[in-house]
Design a protein that fits this description.
heterodimer; A: alpha+beta; Uridine Diphospho-n-acetylenolpyruvylglucosamine Reductase, domain 2; Uridine Diphospho-n-acetylenolpyruvylglucosamine Reductase, domain 3; Enolase-like, domain 1; 3 domains; five-stranded antiparallel β-sheet; four-stranded antiparallel β-sheet; 12 helices; 14 strands; 35% helix; B: alpha+beta; Ubiquitin-like (UB roll); DNA polymerase, domain 1; 2 domains; five-stranded mixed β-sheet; FAD-bd_PCMH-like_sf (chain A); FAD-bd_PCMH_sub2 (chain A)
């Protein structure tokens, strides 16, 4: 399968990318690893007129502690995130979830920023950053702004990012030794999650249970109120609108969300 | 529009003016005539098109040739000097009969080379998980896993995580040899 033809620019800096976005934002798509964008272009579900390739911008690839948070460059590849010593110590959920994305070849190319900007509700990392209560940093020639992850995802494949903005950084709180777990239910090894549940420090993020990644707020509130894991997990599908497709019915996904939440909470509690 | 790319492939400089939409797999196969790299599913699933980009396994159906500009690619053709001097991984695939129809083999071999670069002595479980991005529709996984363990210098029957009582025995020619 061949994408529709497009023009191609490979800026040598973030500022160069921002200048191109300012000029061509509506018609352009930013490509990092290309592992979300290129497949949809090959299927001709997307046909940007211009690709702005940021895959070689090393200034967007880093993982570092910054105060109470870990800052991750948007162009950091999944294979780097999964093996990061900083994340293993400070935010092991993120490293653990990155390890479940796709397969090794995909993780050698795909980036954390690309995964978040693509905003597929079936993706693993958006729900993980949501469970962590992270922030995304967006830059444009107009300036830099931080958006709480709770306000970033606005629908399937859509975010609060403006056409002239570039997602440059993801920030997550340092959770250190807090219990965490990720339960991902797939039919085959490198499939998308039918449902996934990320748990860290009493917060629960749900994969593929609605138009965006979701927090299981009823479960979180029950836990905070002293409910047992079993009782709290039984509320995990409250307020969700899961999709229905070949992989499962709505009711099946609701069932999975409850079961996987119980498993993830149990693992995170050391059980 | 075309863009000039310069890609080192199997140690040799290559260059071409290409459309930005040209996939790396097609650059290798059609521009350079390196047909070992197969295109299977064309959807980032099967891994038949796996090559090394700067030493790491990637699926060349999901990378643009222009994205590999100024980088180094290794294909199956670049691993061994000739058929009598096979690289240890394809040599192990031959010895352990880690192939049936052979279509997935170049991708499997390149994924295995990358896996062993990152983890020189994997357990059987790590081999199986490390090859999760490669599909064999002959379902010859058993001997493929044995081949990767053998290529790492381990006895496939004794590698950590191996369960010889639980799985089929190694390939036999039936010759008694």
């Amino acid at each position: 399968m061949i994408p529709v033809g497009f023009a191609y620019e490979r800026p040598s800096s973030v500022d160069g990318a921002l200048a191109l976005l300012a000029e061509h934002g509506e018609e352009a798509s930013v490509m990092a690893g290309g592992h979300s964008l290129l497949p949809v272009m090959k299927l001709r579900l997307a046909a940007p007129e211009l690709i702005i390739d940021i895959s070689k911008l090393s200034e967007l690839s880093y993982v570092k502690v910054d105060g109470d948070e870990v800052a991750i460059g948007a162009g950091t590849r999944h294979s780097t995130v999964e093996r990061s010593d900083v994340l293993a110590a400070e935010s092991p959920l993120l490293a653990g979830v990155a390890r479940t994305v796709g397969d090794p070849q995909v993780r050698h190319r795909g980036t954390i920023g690309g995964s978040l900007a693509h905003a597929d509700p079936a993706s693993d990392l958006p729900a993980a950053v949501l469970a962590l209560g992270g922030t995304v940093v967006l830059r444009s020639p107009r300036g830099t702004r931080s958006v709480p992850i709770t306000e970033f995802f606005t629908g399937v494949f859509s975010t609060a990012k403006e056409p002239d903005e570039l997602l440059v950084e993801i920030r997550v709180p340092r959770t250190g030794g807090a219990g965490w777990a990720y339960e991902k239910f797939t039919r085959r090894a490198n499939d998308w999650a039918i449902v996934g549940v990320a748990v860290v420090d009493g917060r629960v993020g749900l994969v593929n249970m609605g138009q965006t990644p979701l927090r299981a707020t009823a479960t979180e509130e029950a836990l905070a109120g002293g409910a047992s894991i079993a009782d709290a997990a039984a509320l995990a599908d409250q307020g969700t609108e899961p999709p229905e497709d070949l992989a499962g019915t709505k009711e099946y996904r609701r069932h999975l969300a409850r079961v996987l939440t119980r498993r993830a909470l149990t693992t995170a509690a050391g059980g | 529009m075309t863009v000039k790319v310069e890609i080192t492939v199997n140690g040799e400089s290559t260059s071409a003016d290409v459309e930005p939409r040209l996939l790396l797999a097609h650059y290798l196969r059609d521009q350079l005539g390196l047909k070992d790299t197969n295109v299977g599913c064309d959807t980032t699933s099967c891994g038949a098109c796996t090559v090394l980009l700067d030493g790491e396994s990637i699926k060349s159906c999901t990378v643009l040739a222009v994205q590999a500009d100024q980088q180094s690619v290794t294909t199956m053709e670049g691993l061994s000097t000739d058929s009598d001097n096979l690289h240890p991984v394809p040599a192990a695939f031959r010895a352990e009969h880690g192939l049936q129809c052979g279509f997935c083999t170049p991708g499997m071999v390149m994924a295995a080379v990358s896996l062993l670069e990152e983890n020189p002595k994997p357990t059987e479980k790590q081999v199986r998980e490390g090859l999760e991005g490669n599909l064999c529709r002959c379902t010859g996984y058993h001997n493929i896993v044995r081949a990767v363990l053998a290529a790492s210098g381990q006895d496939p029957d004794k590698a950590e995580g191996s369960e010889p009582d639980m799985v089929a025995p190694g390939f036999s020619t039936g010759s008694g040899a």
